[in-house]
Amino acid sequence: MGDPSGFLKHGSRETPVRRPVPLRLLDWKEVYEPFPLETLQVQASRCMDCGIPFCHNGCPLGNLIPEWNDLAYKGKWEDGIERLHATNNFPEFTGRLCPAPCEASCVLGINQDPVTIKQVEVELIEKAFEDNRVKPVPPSKLTGRKVAVVGSGPAGLAAAQQLTRAGHTVTVFERADRIGGLLRYGIPEFKMEKRFIDRRLAQMEAEGTVFRTGVNVGVDITADELREQFDAVVLAGGATVARDLPIPGRELDGIHQAMEFLPIANRVQFGDLPAPTITAEGKKVVIIGGGDTGADCLGTSHRQGAVSVSQFEIMPRPPEQRADSTPWPTYPLMYRVSSAHEEGGDRVFSVNTEQFVGEDGKVTGLRAHEVRMVNGRFEKVEGSDFELEADLVLLAMGFVGPEKPGLLTDLGVDLNERGNVARSEEWSTNVDGVFVAGDMGRGQSLIVWAIAEGRACAAAVDRFLEGATALPVPITTSTMPQR
Ligand SMILES: Cc1cc2nc3c(=O)[nH]c(=O)nc-3n(C[C@H](O)[C@H](O)[C@H](O)COP(=O)(O)OP(=O)(O)OC[C@H]3O[C@@H](n4cnc5c(N)ncnc54)[C@H](O)[C@@H]3O)c2cc1C
């Protein structure tokens, strides 16, 4: 530990400044200003190197946080990235997008602001790329075994990188036209610029991972062909079935799932489309769903030029500070303001939508009312009915699980009680040689869990193929809830 009194000397936590709202709404670039390395080193020195580093448990990857905080403080960037990569294939994704359960369980957070762990993470990897230190790590010998990974989100990519480095010949199949899963088509540029995915894919290709886009497994290659052609299969197809709102008026034009809206906005940024085919421009937008996906729709709507945006959430407004029900070191239930929330819009809590209304087949508004929780169920607050105008409604109410018809039914994999692919502790399904990782087995979750599961699943596949494995398995005792 470099500075035993760092947390005393530097009491306040500093994080990067967000660009001014009026300026950042003019573009789609990430919202944060650069963070000076000297400030980062001071912040890293606040880490107390606790006897029991609860941050390890907070992190599903078991990141070695006090070790790399110390290395960052001392400016030992090369050692720092080596310790970070030891547990996380893609710190540039988690360093930007993770809700940072590590910070929620930081011991300093008991009576001061926690260490800026996530910022140290992202700066370590950015410095490494800048210094040209992120090199391909090709295997020293090939095993001759072939592995198919279905889906190229963070779970599939983590599994593929680990298995390629273990010497297996890995092909990642992706039905979309680009690699990345929700990182590519769900998450907007202003949260993570896609060049960060491309940079990592170049490393993976140089290591030998083969990417095949535009291949819908189960259609373009059958389940039987997949099992015949490969020694093992990793299912990492995500939880892509969105929760719907089957209320009167749902059939009206102008009501879309978030994952119909966000990919189009991303495609405009990639240059695929001159303008979005579903747009918030000039519209009164209502987003139903108060989570991350809803916030992504909010930031996108503002950048497209919405007239007004309301974001509805059925749950009550959380408390300003950590709720008593989620004491340290658990992930706190509390009111959060993302960069998109800072940019405008009304956040409406404890609200239920009961009907969409429209004219000439197009949505013009919705009817809703307040709710309160009674004995674990929502009850209408009588007399609280209201109507709100809307000419674009975006449904962002989460995902109910993976798609069953096609690949999953053809393979004959069992599902669990939640409708996700059932798996053993060894990440295997009931079908010999078929494994599962990420949202497809876990249900809708987080990038950090997808990477952790991809890594653990890769170790299990390697053991299945070779009888033993040297691949590391993350500590997955995190107190972080699903999402
Ligand atoms: C809008 C949005 C924003 C989010 N923001 C955050 C965030 O800020 N932080 C965070 O931690 N998490 C966030 N999440 C959640 C996070 O993105 C997911 O938990 C994570 O991407 C899951 O990874 P995965 O690899 O399991 O699946 P996915 O990323 O969903 O990737 C699955 C891939 O499999 C492909 N596929 C499916 N079936 C087939 C098939 N039969 N053949 C070929 N390919 C197939 C799909 O096309 C897809 O590309 C967000 C989710 C959404 C929807």
What is bound: which ligands?
A: flavin-adenine dinucleotide
Number of separate helices: 19
What coarse outline follows from CA principal-axis ratios? globular
Count of DSSP E strands?
16
Q: Measure the end-to-end span.
A: 33 Å
- The class by helix and strand makeup works out as alpha/beta
Strand order of the largest sheet: 3-2-1-4-16
Mean pLDDT: 96
Report the sheet-strand fraction.
Answer: 15-25%
Question: What would you note in describing this structure?
Answer:
With 483 residues, the protein is of the alpha/beta class. The chain is built from 19 helices and 16 strands. Strands 3-2-1-4-16 form a 5-stranded parallel beta sheet, sandwiched between helices. Helix 15 links the parallel strand 7 (284-288) and strand 8. Helix 3 (37-44) crosses helix 5, helix 5 runs antiparallel to helix 6 and helix 10 (154-165) packs parallel to helix 19 (447-466). The longest helix has 20 residues, at 447-466. The chain starts with 5 loop residues before the first helix and ends in a 17-residue tail after the last helix. The relative contact order is 0.14. Residues 477-483 have low confidence and may be disordered. The structure holds flavin-adenine dinucleotide. Flavin-adenine dinucleotide (FAD) binds at residues 97-98, 150-156, 173-176, 181-182, 186-187, 216-218, 236-238, 240, 258, 262, 292-293, 296, 407, 438-440, 445-448, 450.
